Inverse folding.
């Protein structure tokens, strides 16, 4: 059965199921991350289900504080960008229930949605009026611009190799075994993209926006009540959506839910393993890093596709 054979109401039902499932899985991964980092630092750490407790603690709360419309639309934009990204990419290849709303040329739209939430949070922080907001905005947009370049070059290389900007067709081109994955058939693009992924996740050494050891403020302390829950939910699904996109672009997608869960887990923890080893970069160090070897690998990937 093709995706077109699934009528609208069942399609919407499975879209809701996949979104709720992605949020739930993202919260579980967040709990595992906190547990793993605590053990590395010699602590016991919170329970794995702690993100659920944090979410339900604030979701029904209300606030009387007013900073302006855009300040409170920031978490909404963040969640909307994450959900929009997730809904445009197939989660399970060949299964119309989890194909979401993938269409020809959707990779270009996916790239827009990846940065929609980040820009929304920047606008929200700007209206908060905190003197440190401009510091975080400058750092975040600088790093985003830097890692966007190698990621975009990797995407162009993959699209040129397959002759399509459709995520569905890119996944289809990798079927037939591990040897067909672009991780192995186009390793230069994979190197550029997975190095850029470190900046997208904003864990150490690229957690220059929150800078927890330096600036004791940020979204976790500036936002509260239901707006905080929207930000937490958006962060959870955004992390999963980015991993699903990388899975589709470089790891052959997934033909079962179990395969998707396993691949998303290992892609996500690639940035966690790196963050457990390296200390945080300064802003100029992070920008210099992404404009160095990752960008060089992306340019080489595009040239290799064009020449060979």
């Amino acid at each position: 059965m093709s995706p077109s054979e699934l009528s609208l109401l069942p399609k919407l039902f499975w879209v809701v199921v996949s979104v709720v499932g992605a949020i739930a899985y993202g919260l579980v991964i967040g709990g595992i991350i906190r547990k793993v980092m605590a053990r590395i630092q010699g602590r016991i750490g919170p329970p794995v289900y702690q993100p659920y407790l944090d979410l339900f603690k604030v979701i029904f709360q209300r606030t009387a504080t007013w900073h302006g419309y855009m300040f409170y639309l920031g978490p909404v934009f963040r969640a909307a960008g994450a959900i929009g990204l997730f809904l445009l990419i197939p989660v399970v290849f060949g299964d119309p229930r989890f194909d979401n709303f993938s269409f020809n040329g959707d990779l270009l739209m996916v790239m827009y949605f990846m940065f929609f939430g980040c820009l929304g949070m920047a606008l929200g922080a700007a209206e908060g009026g905190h003197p440190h907001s401009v510091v975080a905005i400058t750092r975040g947009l600088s790093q985003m611009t830097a890692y966007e370049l190698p990621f975009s070059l990797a995407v162009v290389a993959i699209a040129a190799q397959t002759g399509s900007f459709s995520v569905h067709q890119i996944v289809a081109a990798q079927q037939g075994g591990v040897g067909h994955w672009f991780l192995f058939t186009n390793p230069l693009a994979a190197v550029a993209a997975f190095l850029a992924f470190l900046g997208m996740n904003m864990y150490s050494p690229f957690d220059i926006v929150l800078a927890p050891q330096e600036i004791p403020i940020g979204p976790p302390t500036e936002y509260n009540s239901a707006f905080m829950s929207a930000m937490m939910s958006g962060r959870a699904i955004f992390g999963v959506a980015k991993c699903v996109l990388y899975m589709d672009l470089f790891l052959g997608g997934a033909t079962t839910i179990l395969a998707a869960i396993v691949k998303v887990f290992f892609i996500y923890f690639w940035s966690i393993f790196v963050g457990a080893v390296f200390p945080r970069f300064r802003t100029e160090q992070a920008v210099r890093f992404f404009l160095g070897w990752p960008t060089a690998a992306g340019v080489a990937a595009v040239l290799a596709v064009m020449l060979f």
Remarks:
- The two ends are 36 Å apart (CA to CA).
